[in-house]
Known about the structure:
InterPro entries: EMC6-arch. The protein has helices spanning 2-36, 45-55, 57-63, 73-99. By secondary structure, the chain is an all-alpha fold. It has one domain. The chain is elongated and about 50 Å long.
Amino acid sequence: MATETVERDSGHVRSVTVTTLASLAGIVAMLTSEYAIGVDPSSNVSLFVVLGAIAVQLPILKATGIDTDDFSTKDYLYIAFMTFSLWFVSWTLVLTASTV
């Protein structure tokens, strides 16, 4: 009974950690795209920024103790989707707000 609770909690901590890191990476990619690089919205440089944010997450997850060896394709796609969607939505809001 106690081991089931620990395993369930560790799975929950893993999920929360992966989701939080992917979301924060998307926001950091938006801040980098808008303020640090200051690229034109029609430029492809911002896509390289978000791809870099996706790629840098796996070493960070390993450093935080998350076992990435048992990640499936679904996990990698989830990380990529969450990072891209947070970057896209937040950067769209910033670009829209800056034109008003």
